[in-house]
Write a structure and sequence with these properties.
Number of helices: 5
Keywords: Dioxygenase, Iron, Metal-binding, Oxidoreductase
Strand order of the largest sheet: 1-2-3-4-16-8-18-5-6
Largest sheet: 9 strands, mixed
GO molecular function: dioxygenase activity
Radius of gyration: 19 Å
Pfam family, one: TauD
Helix content: 10-25%
Order of helices and strands: EEEHEHEEEEEHHEEEEEHEEEE
Distance between the termini: 32 Å
Shape: globular
Family: Belongs to the TfdA dioxygenase family.
Structural class: alpha+beta
Strand content: 25-35%
Protein name: TauD/TfdA family dioxygenase
């Protein structure tokens, strides 16, 4: 592990394939430009930053997040978590109480907003209450997942485009016919093909831009061939060598690069409270 001391705080890489912990920084106070630039550099290298021991109002949380980018705002006709027509909350309550979102169940590895034309560049999740067990979040390094593919697979997927269908276009707990298998089903929202191998817009690193469970379609491939390819790639993704597991503490803020990671949440006891707040930042057209 490496540690960098800058002014009065430290950045320490965790013993995992991604992630650095930031200690000694008070996100409620003004932050020097060189500190913000150093944090952005660390995010490019390590994909997630874990800020410890924070105590912020909503206004302070927003001000801190906006050091790293502007707010993600989806198109009106593209629903995302917590959105209603024309309105997406600035701060989304990720909570199993008080009208929050995502409940208490397991959430498969995914990146946010991949079905939109300009997926978010990142998100910050701030922990206010955490369960005594469960509810851990795992992050997965998609650059490492790409780099460890066989060269033959890299060549095969180099120029492929992938449609990710919007999971918020169906009612919870109800089945939906697969668009990729039944072309007679009308699309009730636009779709946006993105590269299966994405280039990170800042680092230039190659990314296997695929999540683990959402319905997808490989553009131009026979449905069965596309299905088999995606299952092969998803099997490759699901390896612990790509993961970091985070056990939350009250006051943690985790800022992750949504372009180069997936995240997964463990289930937890519905009788316990898990209260967090999320801000997502705007991204660019994937290339």
């Amino acid at each position: 592990m490496s540690t960098l001391t800058l002014t009065n705080f430290e950045i320490t890489a965790v013993d995992a394939p991604l992630g650095s912990v930031v200690t000694g920084l008070d996100a409620s106070q003004p932050i020097k430009p060189e500190v913000i630039l150093r944090l952005k550099q660390e995010l490019r290298e390590r994909h997630i930053l874990i800020f410890k021991n924070q105590n912020l109002t909503d206004e302070q949380f927003l001000k801190f997040a906006f050091h790293f980018g502007s707010l993600f705002v989806p198109p009106d006709d593209i629903p995302v978590l917590a959105s209603k027509p024309g309105v997406t909350p600035v701060i989304i309550p990720v909570s199993n109480v008080d009208g929050g979102y995502t409940g208490t169940g397991e959430l498969a590895f995914h990146s946010d907003h991949k079905w939109t034309p300009y997926p978010s560049s990142g998100s910050l999740l701030y922990a206010l209450e955490v369960p005594s067990e469960g509810g851990d979040t795992y992050w997965l390094n998609l650059n490492l997942a790409y780099e460890t593919l066989d060269e033959s697979i890299k060549r095969r997927i180099a120029d492929l485009q992938l449609i990710t269908y919007n999971p918020f276009l169906k009612q919870p707990n109800t089945p939906r016919s697969q668009y990729r298998l039944d072309k007679s089903i009308p699309l009730i929202s636009p779709v946006f093909p993105h590269p299966l191998v994405r280039t990170h817009p800042e680092s230039g690193k190659k990314i296997l831009y695929l999540d683990y469970a959402t319905e997808v379609e490989v553009v131009g491939l026979d449905p069965q061939e596309g299905y088999e390819l995606i299952e092969q790639l998803r099997s490759h993704l699901h390896q612990p060598q790509f993961y970091y597991q985070h056990k939350w503490s009250v006051g943690d803020i985790v800022y992750w690069d949504n372009q180069s990671t997936l995240h997964y949440r463990q289930a937890f006891d519905p009788n316990q409270r898990r209260v967090m707040k999320r801000i997502s930042l705007a991204g660019s057209h994937p290339f």
